[in-house]
Amino acid sequence: MKKRRKKQSTKKSYTCRILGLIMAITVIAILGGVLLKRSIMESPEDTLVEYMNHVEKKEYEAMYAMIDSGEKGYLEKEEYIQRNSKIYEGIEVTDIKIDHIVNKEKKADTVTLSYETSCNTIAGTIQFDNMAELKKTKQGYKLVWQDSLIFPDLESDDKISVTTSKAERGEILDRNGKMLAGKGVATSVGIIPGKLEDRNVSLEKIAELLKIDVETINNKLTAKWVKEDSFVPIETIPKVKETDLMKIQPEEKTLEEQERQNKLLEIPGVMLSDVEVRSYELGEAAAHLIGYVQSVTAEDLENHPGEGYTNESVIGRSGLEKLYEKQLKGKDGCDIKILDSDGEEKEVLVGTFKEDGKDIRLTIDSDLQKSLYEQFKEDPGCSVAMNPYTGEVLALVSTPSYDNNEFIRGLSSEKWTSLNEDEKKPLYNRFRQVWCPGSTFKPVVAGIGLKTETIDPKEDFGNEGLEWQKDSSWGSYQVTTLHEYEPVIMKNAIIYSDNIYFAKAALKIGSENFMNTLNEIGFNQDIPFEIVMQESTYSNTDKIETEIQLADSGYGQGQILVNPLHLASIYTSFLNEGNMVKPYLTYEEEAAGEIWIENAFTKENVEEIMQGVEGVVNNPEGTGYAAHRDDILLAGKTGTAELKATKEDTSGKEIGWFSVFTAEENVDRPILLISMVENVKGIGGSGYVVRKDATVLDEYFKE
Fold it and tell me: Which residues, 6+ apart, have CB-to-CB distance to 683 below 8 Å?
């Protein structure tokens, strides 16, 4: 019995020893961890790194806590935070890196470290060698504060100066060097508060004349910086040029603006002064193309870090101003200097030279652009003009439009609402969209039939009258046309714009041939152009589903949707032996056509098509005869696309088209012009567009 107790006692003793050993090891490990952690926290190198991390994060209170209290002396917390934040944020410090930290000197309770610093600033990268003194305290190492912790040569009485030289934004020019966007002058309407008489009445008059509310004016007059003799800018309005007033018949809007400004000047306290602004010479005529700039927002600054934008910058918001933003914006010059207590330059920390933005010269003919706008400005639609041999885009017009200068001068909320709620959609860029092409598509279908060898251009399809259907399987559906003629061959079908002929042609071609060839000539693919255009399509799905859809597609209806610039490029093949020319917008001194799609059609194909499109304009029976000229041979095709829910629907819109081009290569100013008006119903159909394009061509060829 005793032996068993002894054995049990021995066993317990071993257990206790083991447990004790485990506990001892655990304690040692914990203590070791604490000691290790304490050692890390007390490392002067780690303290310096931690301090700089706080700088990067703008954690100024945490930085202050790492300064030795015995050495803070003259620099209280508020003063410390103000000095550091003003410097670091004033020069927009980011991406601080410290490297090659070396213990240079160690005394009883202090350590001196040398290190290399680099950081990005508003003026570029600053790199320098520096020294830091750290003192060992009960809480670990603390930094001994000196202003040189920011920059080596910075002393307590010194200041950091940031000076900028503003880069000039590049101009946008037309093909002849005329300014489309660049420096201009506007009129700033301002108030000197101390000179106002009968303040309430005066402010109401000013608000009425400027079409703003009184509250807006009062908010500006009560700003903290405003004094009785301050010039307080209220609104920027158009500058009335003396040259515009000296015209034999000044424009009505010019006279109205002059009268408004005279009324403003009659109010005591109101002053007008010139102010430099970004100016758009064509205004509404090119607003969708050129776009506009606006002041940067906080979001812009966040989205474009390190790209040289400041609170005073502008940024391209739409159109070519946005597309060419990087080239146009330039780069501001900037110097960061240390100034002594007398304001004298002590050291240049970093400096960059100003780089003005680059000018962008376009292929656009501003006179043609303006002429097209003036003709169609009241009609929702668009126009595209190009040189059919070189691919130079001569005009891109969307109507109705808006005045992009108003966005520069400051657009009122009322005006913005009006633009957005206008049923004609003046902000909508129509030349970038796709539209049902109607009969302007028939020459393309003719080309497909010839290329696939499914259509003989001399084959007489027979006179079906004005209505036709393939067979009874189509039910009540009929293809209708407007003219009867003989013989019903391709040339005549183009001249008379025969829907029935091209419906039959599409069925002969077959859906596979039809779709494949359209894909070959740019459908369902991006247009290779500086401005992104919506891609052309032939179906709402991935294929033409039915015979009726195919037949309708043959005369540009069904689900065919074409971008006007793409259609223009297809038409260039008729003048370039079947090759489609690539459109472009950036001017080249030696313009030479670049092929986008080679052998879209054959040379023989386009010769057949040209017989028809020349007849459209030059045959008295042709639908485009109103554009006929005796001096220059033109060719083209009209089109009217019906947009209606059913065949019986009489309330739908009718899109009017005219595609017209110079048919001889030796003409002095070759042009291919396509215009579209969204609704020509009741105003002459496509003939309405033909007449307006004819007027534009008259002006174009006079020059």
Answer: none
188 is catalytic: no
Cβ atoms of residues 338 and 154 within 8 Å: yes
Average the pLDDT over 594-614 and give the result: 96
Per-position DSSP letters for 272-334, written without gaps between them: EEEEEEEEETTGGGGHHHH--EEE--HHHHHHSTTSS--TT-EEE-SHHHHHTHHHHH-B-EE
Final residue belonging to a domain, choices 97, 129, 156: 156
Give the predicted TM-score (pTM) of the model.
0.82
CA atoms of 636 and 492, how far apart (whole Å) = 14
Looking at residue 435, what DSSP letter applies? Answer: B
Instruction: Summarize pLDDT for 495-520 with one digit per residue, the tens.
Output: 999 999 999 999 999 999 999 999 99
Q: Residue 277: name the closest of 290, 292, 287 by CA.
A: 292
* Residues 400-452: tens digit of each pLDDT: 999 999 888 887 777 888 899 999 999 999 999 999 999 999 999 999 999 99
Computed from CA positions of residues 8, 14, 17, 18, in that sequence, does the dihedral angle turn out positive or negative? negative
Specify whether 148 is located in the same domain as 201: no
Tokens, residue 437 = 């092409």
Give the CA-trace dihedral at 510, 624, 428, 570, to 10 degrees. 40
Does 355 share its domain with 384?
A: no
Cα diameter, the chain: 138
Q: Say yes or no to pLDDT of 13 above 90.
A: no
Three-state DSSP at 675 gives strand
Pair 390, 341 in one domain: no
Hey, what are 156's tokens? Answer: 């307590």
Q: Are residues 321 and 253 in the same domain?
A: yes
R_g (Cα) of the chain, nearest Å: 38
Q: Is the domain of 257 the same as that of 346?
A: yes
Nearest alpha-carbon partner for 596 in 394, 440, 391, 310: 391
Q: Residue 50 pLDDT > 90, yes or no? A: yes
Q: Write down the residue that tokens 């602004």 correspond to.
A: 277
Domain encompassing residue 535: 367-702
Q: Are residues 60 and 33 in the same domain?
A: no
Same domain, 151 and 206: no
Count: domains in the chain: 4
Domain termination residue (choose one: 337, 360, 383): 360
pLDDT for 309: 86
The residue written with tokens 């000296």 in the block is 246
Give per-residue pLDDT as tens, 485-496.
999 999 999 999
Bridge partners (DSSP) listed for residue 171: none
Tell me the HSE value of 272 on the side-chain side, using a 13 A CA sphere: 18
Tell me the three-class secondary structure of 562-608, residue by residue.
Answer: ECHHHHHHHHHCCCCCCCEECCECECCCCCCCCEEECCCCCHHHHHH
The label of the residue with tokens 């914990």 reads 30
Spot the catalytic one: 366, 401, 439, 497.
439
pLDDT of residue 521: 97
Residues paired with 334 in a beta bridge: 164, 352
Angstrom distance (rounded) from CA 78 to CA 557: 74
| Residues in a beta bridge with 279 | 182
